[in-house]
From TrEMBL:
Family to which this protein belongs: Belongs to the class-I pyridine nucleotide-disulfide oxidoreductase family.
Domain FAD/NAD(P)-binding as annotated: residue spans: 7-327
Transmembrane domains' residue ranges: none
NCBIfam families for the chain: PRK06292.1-1 (NF004939)
SUPFAM superfamilies in the record: FAD/NAD(P)-binding domain, FAD/NAD-linked reductases, dimerisation (C-terminal) domain
Positions contributing to FAD binding: 52, 142-144, 312
Stated name of the protein: Dihydrolipoamide dehydrogenase
Top-level division of the source organism's lineage: Bacteria
Annotated source species: Paraburkholderia caballeronis
Length: 463
C-alpha cells in the first residue's frame, strides 16, 4: 500500500471535478484527481450532449413531416432509419467525449488516480486496493445516478436509464417512459418524433418538467398530451417481464386502469447523489437524510472540515454550468483553506429542450411571496412571428417585484425558449426593472416581441 501526501484530493473527474482540480492547481496546490469510472463526464457521455443529438434527429424528422401547412409537400415517405439515427448519436457523442478525455490525458500522470475513493478518516482516502491519499482538503464531486424504483429492478435488461438509450444500435418499437421530469420529457418527445410509440407516465403530483407555476404547467401538459401519449398523473400498479417485453398496469388520473406491453421501460424518475460508495460513516461529517454531507451552499464546505462538495453530488442544482462553477469554487476553497470564499452564483436559468421549449429564470413561482409580485403574461398563440413559423404554442409568465419594479423571474413554455431564457437571465443578473427592460430595443417581427407583451402587462399591473 503506498500513501500519497497532497494538498487537495478531488474525487470524480466530471464537470465539477475537472474545474476543481484545475482551480486547485492554479493556486499552486499539489492536487490529485481520482476517477472510479470512465473518463468523459456524464454531460458528454450520457447526458447533455447525446440527449441533444437525439433531439436534433427528432426535430429533423418532425420538420420533414410538418411542411404541408406551408403548401410544401414532401412526396413519398419520410423514412427514419433507427440504426443511422443511433449511429450518429453515438459517433458524435464519442467525439465530444474524446475532447474531454484528451484534456484529462494532458494532465500530469502522477496527478491522475484510477479507482473508487473511500474515506478512511476525515483526511485519508483509500483509492482502489493499493493506494492511500492523505489530503489537507478534499473535494467530493462524484455526480449523481438515476433512481430506479424497487418495483422495476428485477425486470432485467428491458428496464433502461438514459445511459442505456445512447448505446442502442436501433430504435425500439414501443417504450414507456417513467417520469415527466426534464430527462423524461426530452427523451420521451424525441423518441416519439423518431417514430417510437411512446407512453410517458408522470407521477402523482402531475409535475411537468421543473415548472412550478400552475397555469404554465397546465398549458404545457396540454401541449404534450396532444403531441404523444402523455399521462401526466399516473400510478403504476404492476410491472412484469414477459419474454422480451414488459407488461405494465397503470391507473390514469380518471381512475381507468390500463394494461399495455412495451419493448422497454425507460426510467427517468430522478437522480440521487453518488455518496453511497464513499464510506462517509468513517468521517466526522454530519449527513442529511439522503446521506449527503451537510454543507454551506455558499462556500460548499461540509461542516467545519476542509471537505467541499460540488456538482450533482450535493443534489441542489443538477446543471452543467452550476457544476462547473461549484467545482471551480470548491477547488479554490480547498486549496486556500481555511481562507474560504462564498460562491457568487449567476442568475438561475434552466431549459428543457422539448419543442416548444420550457424555461425558467430567476425565482420560481412557487418560491415567491404571494403579495410581493405581479404577473405579466403573453400567449404565443397569436404572437406574430411565432404564428408565421407555425410555432405558435406557448404561454409565458414574467414576475415583477411590486416594491422595486424589478424583474424577478419567469416560467414559460414557448418557441425559442432557450434563447429568450438567456435574455431574461442576463436582465435579471443586471437587476433590471421591467421599465428598463422595455426601454431596450425589440426588432420586428421576432419572438422576443412576445416577451415585450408580457413585460408590458407586468408594468401595467405595477402602475
Ligand atoms: C440525460 C441528461 C441530460 C442532461 N442535459 C443537461 C442539459 O441539457 N444541460 C445541463 O446544464 N445539464 C444537463 N444534464 C445535467 C448535467 O449533465 C450534470 O449536472 C453534470 O454532468 C454534473 O456534473 P458532475 O461533475 O457533478 O458529475 P459527473 O460528470 O457525473 O462526474 C462525477 C464523476 O465522479 C465519478 N465518481 C463517482 N463516485 C466516485 C468515487 N467514489 N470515486 C471516484 N470517482 C467517483 C464518476 O464516475 C463520474 O465520472 C443532463 C443530465 C442527464 C443525465
Amino acid at each position: 500500500m503506498k500513501t500519497l501526501n497532497v494538498d487537495v484530493a478531488v474525487i470524480g473527474a466530471g464537470s465539477a471535478g475537472l474545474p476543481a482540480y484545475r482551480a486547485a492547481k492554479a493556486e499552486g496546490a499539489r492536487a490529485v484527481l481520482i476517477e472510479g469510472g470512465p473518463y468523459g463526464t456524464t454531460c458528454a457521455r450520457v447526458g447533455c450532449m447525446p440527449s441533444k443529438l437525439l433531439i436534433a434527429a427528432a426535430d429533423a424528422a418532425h420538420h420533414a413531416s410538418s411542411t404541408a401547412p406551408f403548401g410544401v409537400y414532401v412526396d413519398g415517405n419520410v423514412r427514419i432509419d433507427g440504426r443511422d439515427v443511433m449511429r450518429r448519436v453515438r459517433s458524435e457523442r464519442d467525439r465530444f467525449v474524446g475532447f474531454v478525455v484528451e484534456g484529462v490525458e494532458q494532465m500530469p500522470a502522477e496527478d491522475r488516480l484510477r479507482g473508487d475513493a473511500q474515506f478512511v478518516d476525515d483526511g485519508l482516502l483509500q483509492v482502489g486496493d493499493d493506494t492511500r491519499v492523505r489530503a489537507r482538503s478534499i473535494v467530493i464531486a462524484t455526480g449523481s445516478t438515476p433512481v430506479v424504483p424497487a418495483m422495476y429492478r428485477t425486470l432485467g435488461d428491458r428496464v433502461v436509464v438514459n445511459d442505456d438509450v445512447f448505446e442502442w444500435q436501433d430504435l425500439p418499437r414501443k417504450v414507456a417512459v417513467i417520469g415527466a421530469g426534464v430527462i423524461g420529457l426530452e427523451l420521451g418527445q424525441a423518441l416519439s418524433r423518431l417514430g417510437v410509440a411512446v407512453t410517458l407516465l408522470g407521477g402523482a403530483r402531475g409535475h411537468v418538467g421543473p415548472l412550478s407555476d400552475p397555469d404554465i404547467a397546465a398549458y404545457a401538459r396540454g401541449v404534450f398530451e396532444q403531441a404523444f401519449r402523455f399521462e401526466s398523473r399516473a400510478h403504476v400498479e404492476a410491472a412484469t417481464r414477459v419474454g422480451d417485453t414488459v407488461q405494465l398496469r397503470y391507473r390514469r388520473a380518471d381512475g381507468d386502469v390500463v394494461d399495455d406491453t412495451f419493448d422497454y421501460l425507460l426510467i427517468a424518475a430522478g437522480r440521487r447523489p453518488n455518496v453511497g460508495r464513499l464510506a462517509l460513516h468513517n468521517t466526522s461529517l454530519a449527513l442529511d437524510g439522503d446521506g449527503v454531507p451537510v454543507y454551506d451552499p455558499l462556500t460548499l464546505q461540509a461542516g467545519g472540515q476542509p471537505v467541499f462538495i460540488a456538482g450533482d453530488a450535493n443534489g441542489v442544482l443538477p446543471l452543467l454550468h452550476e457544476a462547473a462553477d461549484e467545482g471551480r469554487m470548491a477547488g479554490l476553497n480547498a486549496a486556500r483553506f481555511p481562507a474560504v470564499q462564498p460562491l457568487v452564483r449567476r442568475a438561475p436559468i434552466s431549459v428543457v429542450f422539448t419543442d416548444p421549449g420550457i424555461a425558467m429564470v430567476g425565482a420560481r413561482h412557487a418560491d415567491l411571496a404571494p403579495d410581493a409580485y405581479v404577473v405579466g403574461e403573453v400567449s404565443f398563440e397569436d404572437q406574430g412571428r411565432s404564428r408565421v413559423m407555425l410555432r405558435n404554442r406557448g404561454l409565458m409568465h414574467v414576475y415583477a417585484d411590486r416594491a422595486t419594479r424589478r424583474f424577478v423571474g419567469a416560467e414559460w413554455i414557448g418557441p425559442d425558449a432557450e434563447h429568450i431564457a438567456h435574455l431574461l437571465a442576463w436582465a435579471l443578473q443586471m437587476k433590471l426593472t421591467v421599465d428598463a427592460m422595455l426601454a431596450m430595443p425589440f426588432y420586428h417581427p421576432v419572438v422576443e416581441e412576445g416577451v415585450r407583451t408580457a413585460l408590458r402587462s407586468a408594468a401595467a399591473r405595477l402602475a
